[in-house]
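All the exercises in this workshop are built on plain-text protein records. Instead of coordinates, the fold is spelled out as a row of discrete tokens. Once this layout is familiar, the rest of the handout is easier to follow. The record below serves as our worked example for the rest of this section.
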Amino acid sequence: MLKGAVIQLTPQTEAVRSEDAPVAPRDNTLPDLSDDRGWSFDISSLKVADSVLVFQHEDDEQVTIRNIRLQMEQDPQHRGSFEFSGRVNRDQRDLTLSLNGTVDASDYPHDLTAAIEQINWQLQGADLPKQGIQGQSGMGVSRPSGRSHINAFHLTKSV
């Protein structure tokens, strides 16, 4: 569990690569084995609470994500669930976002399926109606055999 963390990503904290640093090959030259599971998130549970993430670009533009709450769980077959909520602040606007969903990586890298079952959002601030704009959404994404497509996307909004 990570609680109360403050992470700042600014131009000064970016990685600096030496001009003569080696470059990794882009193509995978390894054989495609049937038991190869590829990359995996091998932690059964991750929880982040009451944390802040600050992005600052070179032009001093800043995006802040506050009140971050993230919970991810995964079973031994690499099927997992996640919940996220937070507030994104930028340009005198505040986006409150919460979502939950599932991921099935049991046959990764050959097949990957994810579903965001519920997204709730509300945008308030400068140049918006006093009550803001809010809505709900959900979607499913699958990547069978290296192809990507989106399934069952729906969106509703209210002012």
